[in-house]
Amino acid sequence: MATHRFTPDVFHASMGAHEPVLCVKSGDTIITTTLDAHGFDQAQVKRGPDTNPMTGPFFVEGAKAGDTLAVSINRISMTREMGWTRQ
Length: 87
What we know:
The chain has strands at residues 3-5, 11-12, 22-24, 29-31, 54-55, 58-60. By secondary structure, the chain is mostly beta strands. The protein has a two-stranded parallel ribbon. A two-stranded antiparallel sheet has the order 2-5. A two-stranded parallel sheet has the order 3-6. The termini are far apart.
């Protein structure tokens, strides 16, 4: 099992048939970052769309259509002292 340190440079505001950003094997660990819901990174630089941009998708080698994948989030680290929400 490998650990991948992935630095994203493309962010998607939709789920769908996007090209994988990284290929991994079952059991691998990915360490990465993402943007806030307005597209800003941890340095407050606008890098993505203003619609909950996502990091990925990741391709799991050997996974087939219809398979169920189990994903564990081992740790989340905040990069700011404050957050916000909308109603």
